[in-house]
Input
Amino acid sequence: MTYELKTKENDNSVITFIEAVENVKKREDAYQLLDIFTETTGYQAKMWGTSIIGFGAYHYKYASGHEGDAPLVGFSPRKAKISLYFATGEPTREELLKDFGKHTSGKACVYINKIADIDIEILKALINESMRFLQEMYPNK
Output
């Protein structure tokens, strides 16, 4: 049985997706994040699945044989909070998050309410470290 990954890169419009965000402040933050991620990564934004704006890509393969593609970094302006996607297991992440500002974090995501709550320079460092870590770990894409 092959596991079909739901979150795939597609040609849906990032701008159309952001324009559909109901909360005006969250929409403004999404545009600001779009600028920050684009500038920091050097990659064009792409939609992954129906709600993740991703930058760059890498191909992973686990010991279990499961493999797929994922964005190097990304974000999603969700209803409750804004999700920021960084590499899981990246060693400097916890240290950087100490001074990041108001956030909560899960395994792969860091959640924020608004950009005003966080340090933009630390966000850029998180993006850069995540990309460096993933490109070293999965150098094939």
